Amino acid sequence: MNRSRRSFLKSTGLGFLAFGLPPSFLVRAAGAEQSARGKSLVIVFQRGGMDGLNVVIPFKDQAYYALRPTIAVKEPASGEERAIDLDGYFALHPALAPLKAIYDKRQLAIVQAAGSPDNSRSHFDSQDYMELGTPGVKSTPEGWLNRYLSENHIANSPFRGVAVSPQMPRTLAGTAPALSMSSIEEFRLRNPAMAAGLEKLYMDSADPLFRQGGKSLFEAMARLRAIESKIPPSTAAYSAGRFGNGLKQIARLIKADVGLEVAFTEIEGWDTHVAEGGATGQLANRLKELGEGLAAFYQDLGDRMNDVVLVTMSEFGRTARENGNRGTDHGHANVMFVLGGGVRGGKVYGRWPGLAPEVLYEGRDLDLTTDYRAVCGEVLARHLRQRDLNKIFPGFRAAGSVGLIA
Amino acid sequence: MSTSLTAEQKSIHFLNRTSFGVTRDTVQRVNRIGISAYLDEQLEPEKISDQSVEEKVSALKTIRLNSGELFELYPPPKVARERGMAADMTTAPRMIIYELQQARLLRAVQSQRQLNELMVDFWNNHFNIFAAKGADRWLTTSYDRDTIRPHALGKFRDLLLATAKSPAMLFYLDNWLSVSPTARMPANARRRGLNENYGRELMELHTMGVDGGYTQRDVREVARCFTGWTLLRPRGDAEFHFEPRLHDSGEKIVLGRRITAGGMEDGLQVIDLLARHPSTAKFIATKMARRFIADDPPRAIVERAADTFRSSDGDMRTMLRTIIDSPEFFSPEFYRAKVKKPLEFAASALRITGADVRVTPQLIRYLGRMGEPLFLAQPPTGYPDLASSWISPDMLLTRMNFAADLVTNRLEGARVAPEALRDSQALIRLVAPDSLSPASRRVLADIDEKEAPAMLLAAPEFQRR
Predict the structure, then answer these.
(1) Interchain contact, B389 vs A13, CB within 8 Å
(2) ipTM of this model?
């Protein structure tokens, strides 16, 4: 089947070594400045399969309340625990209230019935497909964010592609240099007394592999230390936990003008098979963390949001009908958020396929009308000026423009 | 570099390649009885007592349990709630994986049967499954214990068949869902026709290799042969089962060979065909030479190992002897040619410092951050065995921090006795009997004696084996 799997092996986690850094990018401030006010794309992956139908609620679709007798969110009206009206047909889950103001400022767009077209309902296969950018094909050697980095050699910043996550996600893994970290603060030697010696040990090593690896590491650390103190402390109230921290770290890198082009972070806990809850409960708690995190990110970046587009995605949606455990099982289409200064927001995009039994996908799930690659492709093309989308999403052609970005 | 290794280099090189790293004791023993006798011992692990580490391992509750018991005691959250069990980390399914990780690390550090452990690790990776994929959370314990371990130094064909029939692999590569396209299935069945996943990986990753000379048509035909190889009770007392009603009974042609046995025999014939195929001999020989010699092993040794594979009917002991007895094995060209993968690095650091190990989440997290969360390689390829995969900046940084934490006893779960580090010259000789590089010598001469052990473990020399 492919030659490429081996090159994937060669390259996973390879980091900077593939292309090598110029010997002293630290002194090349000019080069870094070029991308200083550059554009960034931020991907938020919601692992576990978010129940999009309870996030952007089709309260005017007759079938919605019939399918979900115990977990449906009530239609917008005055009073407690009501969905928040968006356009007279869809409404936002009340736990996402912090996002409503951004939607009203037309900087948050929503795409309903979107996602990956593959019919796998396995978390791992579906996440892989989505991250590789080739639904149905597992052998793709690198993730689509990494392909973007390979296609564009804009700046030599070690921070062109950064994941704030426990490990390098597949979507950023590949031949192009990328970095994963848990935080700027933790990307340092735990024993600073060793720094000078270790740097010497690596820089002077006769072992070219480690000399090069060490050089990349020490340069990245030096760069982070140099910017650390210059980033104004954030006043935004990020949600506590790994997700809020991830967004906060990404915002700091953006503010520090380190040449960040694509960033990735993730939020877990969406696999709500049991006791999902409605306006409150399990899903609502996850949404609260999500909404607060995104709103804080938006506030934190302020005007810089003009240079940023953030896209959320999850491997699949969930069954239209609630199950016997007041939860939902693995389904198909989902909802995506697109957030940014240049986004044509304040609108719910995507053709709504409906929830009547005869139009459900495989008789059980929300059908998919917008491929996530159409959404991401549009952001890549219009925000990051990627010309040939076939290089990023091979074999995919969007049916037409979604119209998300001016 | 000199034309041949010194005796001291040879001992240390041999141990670095056939174990998870040198210890003072193992070096002394190799020096006393000789490399050849030491290898003989290691190739008969059943004769080596391993009581002390096995006592530690048996304190881990899940390691001896079967899949049904594991599902009972560590049910998925949904089942736990239905039974009214309190939400409790200690009975969550992830506890099973955590204990597997602990056992793997404990044995890598402390087992006396080092070569056997190393081959268990090698085969687990070759026949990789992802322990967090669905039902595999309850199936991986048995996979490691009952499928891989008994055959780690046995015949390749037996191991291949064991994996083909293992619930963990049937689940991971979806073969349990693969049914004859003509089988009558209820409309809402999860199973829908042929699933090629296992058929493809069986040839690409388990036997012939991607350039082994099979076609997409062969993938499909192999998948047809394995229809009906399924499992009972994936979430419970899982068990291999051949279901004739799901089997495609039509004629198949695999690699030009007509498969007409019918029933479960079709799959067995494919196993035999693939286990004895010349491409498989070459593919396995290459992977083993890559593990024991170099990322890009010389062709001569691959050919010799492939010949051995064929003449010994895929006997792993014989294969190991061929590789280790080859002149290339001790060639200066390949001295320290391999970069340690994270498990090898962490285990070797714990071994060389004689650390008293009690595996903790912090230790396991370190391995994840270095890029090798144990039992959690998601793709069927497993982890790569190539230097370039392990030295990204964050991975290197994590290794440095691990070394610093370990020697200062800030690594929760590992205690290093101060006297183990007192003689830094002795430690240096274990890492580099040939003496360190001039750069490393200069740095170590300049720094505080206290920092020397951490520096040594973080140095490029110790990242290699």
Answers:
(1) yes
(2) 0.91
